[in-house]
Amino acid sequence: MKKAAPIYVTQPYLPPLAEFMPYLEQIWDNKVLTNGGPFHQQLEQALCEYLGVEHLALFSNGTLALMTALQALRITGEVITTPYSFVATSHSMLWNGIKPVFTDIDPATFNLDPARIEAAITPQTTAIMPVHCYGYPCDVDAIQKIADNYNLKVIYDAAHAFGVKVDGNSLLNFGDLSVLSFHATKVFNTFEGGAIICKDATTKTRIDRLKNFGFVNETTVVAPGINGKMSEINAAFGLLQLQHIDQALQRRQAIDRAYRAGLAGIPGLQVPGAPAATDCNYSYFPILIGPEYALSRDGLYDALKQQEIYARRYFYPLITDFPMYRSLPSAHADNLPMATIAAAQVLCLPIYPNLSDDDVQRIIALCRKPV
Ligand SMILES: *Cc1c(COP(=O)(O)O)cnc(C)c1O
């Protein structure tokens, strides 16, 4: 029997190569490679329409977009954030000389628990940076209420939340800014890429200057900006990806449904999900492995690995376990009991458009009867 190909937690979606050629020919013809060229402008407009947002600034990746978002709102001092995320969330603060203050998550959503935020606010607090983990919406209303009461800015790390809607409204419209990632591993990829979503033209102009060294025109520089611009190749690829995204999301939804049906009723294996009013993007398929399961979480992780199925423990370790964070008082496990449990129990199963029905069933069978 032919050996099955290894299965990773995700595989980047790539449209047929031939469809990309005309875009490349256009770039080779007009010789505009970057600096807000025609594809860059078209992609910003197309994404605003697709996502249902007012203003969007493209970036070369999500991390530079997070760093620039903090600069754009002149955030200083302390920012309240989650330990249950990818390290870029809090790294963007350290690069800005900001101190992250970690608070615990709500185990139902894996997102910052609004009830924990208030106690972490000090006179130095200037902002909250929550993450819509797995694309599951944060409690945006409760977070905004706290921000309004204490005059804090809210910047969402929405790297997982491309296309997610709540009651028909884009999740990216909440807070002061939202930041997307278009990295190869994300639902919508431009190889590398990212974006900031903002609400007014003045902020968009400030962000556009900050991502281009602070230039206003040929001779005027108004801020110590960075180079965060998306190239024309990435922008052109994004335009092509947009033509395929609905179909890709539909396939993800079908896989999500198959997993939910197949994994129901297994002792000790819990399948979380987003609240009912959410239009999901099915970016991840997290499960939680409790003590009643036949194996430990790492036991299942290893059993799948034996079959060359590479599930991932997102997010283990917690950000607060890394050396540049662990000495902060807020990083102590006693402060983060729910995040600590989630990190110990979570396993993200493979989900991507090209994952076959047979492979989904094989993964379900292994979870039912791990060997
Ligand atoms: C992917 C990711 C980022 C970083 O985005 P890049 O485009 O890879 O720089 C930031 N935060 C979260 C939660 C992510 O998953």
SSE map:
Elements: E1 7-8, H1 17-30, H2 38-51, E2 55-59, H3 62-72, E3 78-81, H4 88-94, E4 99-102, E5 105-106, E6 111-112, H5 114-117, E7 125-129, H6 140-150, E8 153-157, E9 165-166, E10 169-170, E11 177-181, E12 194-198, H7 201-210, E13 215-217, E14 220-221, H8 232-263, E15 269-270, E16 278-279, E17 285-289, H9 297-306, E18 309-310, H10 337-345, E19 346-349, H11 357-368
Parallel strand pairs: 1-18, 3-4, 3-7, 7-8, 8-11
Antiparallel strand pairs: 2-12, 5-6, 9-10, 9-16, 11-12, 13-14, 15-17, 17-19
Pyridoxal-5'-phosphate binds next to helix 3 and helix 4.
Keywords: Aminotransferase, Pyridoxal phosphate, Transferase
Protein name: DegT/DnrJ/EryC1/StrS family aminotransferase
Family: Belongs to the DegT/DnrJ/EryC1 family.
Account of the 3D structure:
By secondary structure, this protein is α/β, with parallel strands linked by helices. It folds into 2 domains: 215 residues, Aspartate Aminotransferase, domain 2 (3-Layer(aba) Sandwich); 123 residues, Aspartate Aminotransferase, domain 1, CATH 3.90.1150.10. 36% of the residues lie in helices and 17% in strands. It contains 11 helices and 19 strands. A 7-stranded mixed beta sheet has the order 2-12-11-8-7-3-4, with helices on both faces. Strand 9 and strand 10 form a beta hairpin. Helix 1 runs antiparallel to helix 8 and helix 8 crosses helix 11. The longest helix has 32 residues. The protein is globular. The two termini are 20 Å apart. The relative contact order is 0.17. The site of pyridoxal-5'-phosphate has 14 residues, from helix 3 and helix 4.
